[in-house]
């Protein structure tokens, strides 16, 4: 019953979405308001139906309805309550429902917000959104039906993938998908702009807040993914340059470029063609990402499945790219360049450079990800492109980008005079060089680490210079300190929100540098009572215990950690799930501001007398998560509605 | 105490540990760092995209043991890498060797940066050239206005 | 003519799409082995019963070397009866089937052998050195060795009757020694 109801609702939703898209397009073409309103009603209907499908599926999960194949594959009688809810989006079919639901939600928000304000663009944007929504509903109906029935009904389900039994599971896909789907709206408006020929600033201004929100959620999704990888997957790292990680990183890179180049168009009316191309590229990359995750074309730890769904996604990607780029080619004449500049040394140049570096980085990641495919197609030889390659090629690009973060916000528009350069950058450059010297004096020998220190100090100093100068100006006018600072932040919240975000990136950069340059690790076999030493810590192996949980069996090792005084006991474990062929490593760690202790249990003797332990002391990794929090605060500040600026 | 012990033994016998013996860390002159460095360059064959150094899987652990043994037997890091490449092909290296067709993956990103910089440079040049051709008549401003304008421009708000 | 250059923009997307489409024809797990045509690496293991199992002792016969595991479902379960059946059929003709169990528990291996009634020699690769020596990256994988001890065919995935017989017949037909 549940299954049939769900399937029926999916079909109706698909029909409504298709109708709505066509109606909105027809309404836009003919100008008939009745059609547009009908499309809005259809969109509402789709949202209600998809929400109901979601609720129905969750209900099936909660009531152990194993007649639904998706439920049987992803839970069993032992799955804890909260994982029965979050497991709804734990595999392919659920992820499509989640994506569709978010698209539907964003469509409703688009209707509510832009129905009145954007007469010409709105109908075409609505049509585009509904068209894309229709595609995902098609996938849900044809290729990945969540309500497919299973007969005979099994007595017990298979169970959730143990790696997904984690708090990260609740938030990572949600944040990531909110980011991905969020970029659909700027894309829809870009399409509307191209179709109507109104490629000026209107579509940009309308989508400004959407872009920041989508960008923020994508950043959050990536950071949570890193955190999840760090504390669940048991390999002691947070980013593996896995193809699916790359697939989420690429739209983030081009999205960041878009976020910045938008400011040039707003100020100087330049780069309009570039901005439209960037948003098409970003949206295309989000589709590419879903394609990669679901097609199995490139092997990845995230890959959901192979099959017909990959062909559907590739087909849609082709349709979107060819249509969008075709529209760009069609409107080519209207992109008359109006750019004017007084000097190469200017903020425009800095932003351009920012874009070049970000898009080049995105290209690098893209090419590295598909290169194994290319190599096999051309040479017939399989190669791997992994972390060593990506790190080597991207790090110079990222370091340059961090440096630009300091230059861009302070350098003058149109032309930076020598005076301007001196006033803004003298101190920061001096401090940066001093930081490098200090690092060297303190024993840092890695060139990369020293450069990173210098650059981050430089950028932090530029932010301080700006903030101090602006605060001082207010103080001179008579305000007292705290209201001056607060007023600055609130009145120019976009600018200072951006600064706080940059600050967050700086902290993350330092965390990445620390973890790469200064982390140590070792692997050793210990008998009971034996001690291993690493980086000033002593780890004493105290033996193993076996524990039975609701849906798995656990062997836990106990290691007492001390560095002069006893710090505690860490318990890395191996979890044995009946439905999984190999045991899952359960990492135990002790987080700290300066360093994390990280332990993985390897082989062990059956009698518990000895075990192989992998020990890691990771430095500054916590800074990455802290940087993420700062980034969140900055994004929140930037999204605030703008106060009316007094002159 | 002994009852707990029996329970542990029984439980362990039930689940059974992995059959491979413990990688003995005897008094070899091989540093773990050397093993780690080589393992970082090799792809764990049963994982997706993880290095042998990072992977927590059994196979990776066994591969690290093999690396350790071979280093202890006196092989150089290059020879150890060669051993794996001879059996698995280029695929086992996490970074494609810099020769032949593989040079493309190393050079094309560099080319992208160069092309990007060149395009941006051409664009900026066009913009400044256009500006130079159209000079507005100089506007006279007094000092106070000038100072205020400068401050506004530089704060960027 | 100049107006037509702009249409290069959408066309630029086509090569990428074609490459991705090509990806559907490939299996990311199908890695060609560089060992084909080379002498098979020797090994000295012990069977589950404790008898020595050395590759060198089987020189002069056609060897079907099968890497498997009890957790490799369903492929290893499909090919086990195939291997046993053909082992019984070919053992008098100078062919030997050798099974190497990888990443497995002894009880599980014994149970597997018992369930399928396997009578060919089976050993456990406890340290993983043999599987790495043969470039094994998944199970099941089967290597067909000729009488001179060279690897001639590597078959990834479950072995079928057809594959077994065609390959072994071909190798048997070759001259015994150079």
Short descriptors:
B: mainly alpha, 2 domains, 61% helix, C: 178 residues, alpha/beta, Glutaredoxin, five-stranded mixed beta sheet, two-stranded antiparallel ribbon, elongated
Question: Mind explaining what this structure looks like?
Answer:
The complex is a heterotrimer of chains A (647), B (157) and C (178). By secondary structure, chain A is an alpha+beta fold. Chain A folds into four domains: 1-153, Four Helix Bundle (Hemerythrin (Met), subunit A); 178-256 and 268-337 and 351-385, no CATH class; 387-518 and 627-639, no CATH class; 520-623, no CATH class. Chain A contains 19 helices and ten strands. In chain A, strands 2, 3, 4, 5, 6 and 7 form a six-stranded antiparallel beta sheet that branches. Chain A has a four-stranded antiparallel beta sheet with strand order 1-10-9-8. The termini of chain A are far apart. The model of chain A has no long low-confidence stretch (mean pLDDT 88). Chain B has helices at residues 2-15, 32-41, 58-72, 77-88, 103-133, 143-155. Chain B is built from six helices and no strands. The longest helix of chain B is centred in the last third of the chain and has 31 residues, at 103-133. Chain B has 157 residues and is mainly α. Chain B folds into two domains: 29-95, Helicase, Ruva Protein, domain 3 (Orthogonal Bundle), CATH 1.10.8; 101-155, no CATH class. Chain C is of the alpha/beta class. Chain C has a single domain (35-173), classed as 3-Layer(aba) Sandwich (Glutaredoxin), CATH 3.40.30.10. Chain C contains six helices and seven strands, in the order ααβββαβαβαββα. Chain C has helices spanning 8-11, 13-22, 75-90, 106-116, 129-133, 161-173; strands at residues 44-46, 52-54, 62-68, 95-102, 122-125, 141-145, 151-156.
Over the alpha carbons, how many angstroms does the gyration radius of chain B reach? 31 Å
CATH superfamily of the largest domain in chain B: Cytochrome C biogenesis protein
Number of domains of chain B: 2
User: Which shape of chain B, going by the Cα principal axes?
Assistant: elongated
Q: Which percent range describes the beta-strand content of chain A?
A: 5-15%
Give the CATH architecture of the largest domain in chain B: Orthogonal Bundle
Helical proportion of chain B?
55-70%
DSSP, total strands of chain B: 0
Q: What value does the average pLDDT of chain B take?
A: 77
How many distinct helices of chain A? Answer: 19
Count all strands of chain A and give the number.
Answer: 10
Distance between the termini of chain B: 73 Å
């Amino acid at each position: 019953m549940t299954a049939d109801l769900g399937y029926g609702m999916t079909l109706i939703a698909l029909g409504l979405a298709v109708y709505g898209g066509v109606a909105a397009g027809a309404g836009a073409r003919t100008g008939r308001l009745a059609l547009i309103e009908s499309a809005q009603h259809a969109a509402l209907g789709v949202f209600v139906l998809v929400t109901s499908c979601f609720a129905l599926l969750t209900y099936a999960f909660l009531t152990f309805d194993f007649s639904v194949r998706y439920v049987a594959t992803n839970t069993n009688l032992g799955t804890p309550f909260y994982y029965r809810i979050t497991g709804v989006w734990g595999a392919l079919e659920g992820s499509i429902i989640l994506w569709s639901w978010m698209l539907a939600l964003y469509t409703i928000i688009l209707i509510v917000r832009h129905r009145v304000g954007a007469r010409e663009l709105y109908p075409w944007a609505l049509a585009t959104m509904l068209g894309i929504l229709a595609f995902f509903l098609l996938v849900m109906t044809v290729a990945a039906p969540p309500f497919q029935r299973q007969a005979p009904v099994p007595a017990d389900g298979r169970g959730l993938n143990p790696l997904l039994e984690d708090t990260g599971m609740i938030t990572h896909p949600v944040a990531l998908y909110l980011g991905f789907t969020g970029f659909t709206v700027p894309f829809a408006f870009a399409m509307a702009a191209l179709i109507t020929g109104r490629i000026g600033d209107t579509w940009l201004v309308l989508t400004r807040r959407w872009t920041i929100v989508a960008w923020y959620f994508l950043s959050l999704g990536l950071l949570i993914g890193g955190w999840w990888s760090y504390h669940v997957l048991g390999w002691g790292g947070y980013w593996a340059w896995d193809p699916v990680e790359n697939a989420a990183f690429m739209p983030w890179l081009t999205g960041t470029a878009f976020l910045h180049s938008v400011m040039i168009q707003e100020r100087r009316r330049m780069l309009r063609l570039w901005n439209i191309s960037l948003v098409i590229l970003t949206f295309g990359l989000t589709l590419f990402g879903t394609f990669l995750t679901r097609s199995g074309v490139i092997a990845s730890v995230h890959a959901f499945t192979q099959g017909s769904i990959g062909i559907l996604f590739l087909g849609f990607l082709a349709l979107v790219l060819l249509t969008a780029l075709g529209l760009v080619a069609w409107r080519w004449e209207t992109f008359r360049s109006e750019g004017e500049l007084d000097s190469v040394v200017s903020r425009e140049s800095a932003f351009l450079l920012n874009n070049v570096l970000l898009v080049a980085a995105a290209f690098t990641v893209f090419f590295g990800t598909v290169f194994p495919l290319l190599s096999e197609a051309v040479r017939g030889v399989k190669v791997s492109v992994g972390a060593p390659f990506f790190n080597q090629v991207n790090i110079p690009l990222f370091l340059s980008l961090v440096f630009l973060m300091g230059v861009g916000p302070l350098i003058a528009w149109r032309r930076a005079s020598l005076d301007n350069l001196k006033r803004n950058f003298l101190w920061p450059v001096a401090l940066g060089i001093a930081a490098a010297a200090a690092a060297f004096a303190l024993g840092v020998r890695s060139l990369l680490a020293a450069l990173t220190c210098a650059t981050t100090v430089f950028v932090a100093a530029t932010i301080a210079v700006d903030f101090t100068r602006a605060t001082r100006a207010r103080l001179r006018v008579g305000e007292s300190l705290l209201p001056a600072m607060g007023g600055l932040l609130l009145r120019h919240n976009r600018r200072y929100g951006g600064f706080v975000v940059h600050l967050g990136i700086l902290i993350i950069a330092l965390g990445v540098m620390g973890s790469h340059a200064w982390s140590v690790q070792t692997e050793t076999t210990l008998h009971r009572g034996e001690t291993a030493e690493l980086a000033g810590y002593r780890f004493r192996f105290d033996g193993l215990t076996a524990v039975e949980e609701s849906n798995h069996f656990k062997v836990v090792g106990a290691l007492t950690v001390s560095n002069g005084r006893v710090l505690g006991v860490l318990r890395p474990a191996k979890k044995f799930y009946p439905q999984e062929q190999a045991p899952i490593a359960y990492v135990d760690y002790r987080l700290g501001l300066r360093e994390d202790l990280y332990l993985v249990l390897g082989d062990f003797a059956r009698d518990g007398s000895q075990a192989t332990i992998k020990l890691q002391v990771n430095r500054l990794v916590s800074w990455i998560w802290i940087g993420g929090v700062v980034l969140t605060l900055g994004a929140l500040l930037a999204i605030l509605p703008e106060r009316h600026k007094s002159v | 105490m002994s009852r707990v012990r029996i329970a542990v033994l029984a439980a362990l016998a039930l689940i059974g540990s992995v059959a491979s013996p413990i990688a003995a860390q005897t008094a070899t002159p091989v540093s773990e760092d050397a093993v780690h460095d080589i393992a970082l360059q090799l792809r764990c064959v049963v994982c997706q995209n993880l290095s042998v150094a990072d992977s927590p899987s059994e196979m990776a652990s066994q591969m690290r043991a093999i690396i350790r043994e071979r280093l202890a037997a006196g092989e150089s890091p290059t020879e150890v890498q060669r051993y794996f490449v001879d059996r698995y092909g280029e695929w086992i290296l996490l970074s494609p060797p810099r020769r032949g067709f593989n040079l493309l993956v190393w050079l094309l990103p560099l080319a992208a940066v160069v092309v990007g910089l060149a395009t941006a440079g051409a664009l900026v040049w066009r913009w400044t050239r256009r500006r130079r051709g159209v000079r507005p008549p100089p506007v006279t401003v007094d000092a106070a206005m000038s100072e205020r304008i400068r401050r506004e421009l530089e704060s960027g708000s | 003519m100049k107006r037509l250059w702009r249409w290069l923009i959408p066309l630029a997307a086509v090569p990428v799409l074609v490459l991705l489409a090509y990806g559907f024809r490939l299996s990311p797990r199908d890695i060609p082995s560089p060992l084909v045509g080379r002498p098979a690496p020797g090994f000295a293991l012990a069977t589950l019963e404790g008898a020595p199992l050395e590759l060198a002792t089987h020189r002069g016969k056609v060897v079907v070397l099968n890497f498997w595991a009890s957790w490799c479902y369903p492929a290893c379960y499909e090919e086990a009866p195939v291997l046993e059946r053909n082992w019984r059929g070919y053992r008098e003709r100078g062919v030997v089937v050798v099974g190497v169990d990888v990443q497995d528990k002894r009880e599980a291996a014994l149970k597997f052998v018992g369930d399928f009634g396997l009578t060919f020699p089976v050993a456990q690769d406890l340290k993983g050195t043999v599987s790495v020596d043969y470039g094994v990256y998944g199970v099941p994988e089967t290597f067909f060795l000729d009488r001179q001890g060279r690897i001639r065919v590597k078959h990834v995935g479950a072995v079928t009757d057809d594959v077994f017989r065609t390959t072994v017949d071909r190798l048997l037909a070759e001259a015994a020694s150079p």
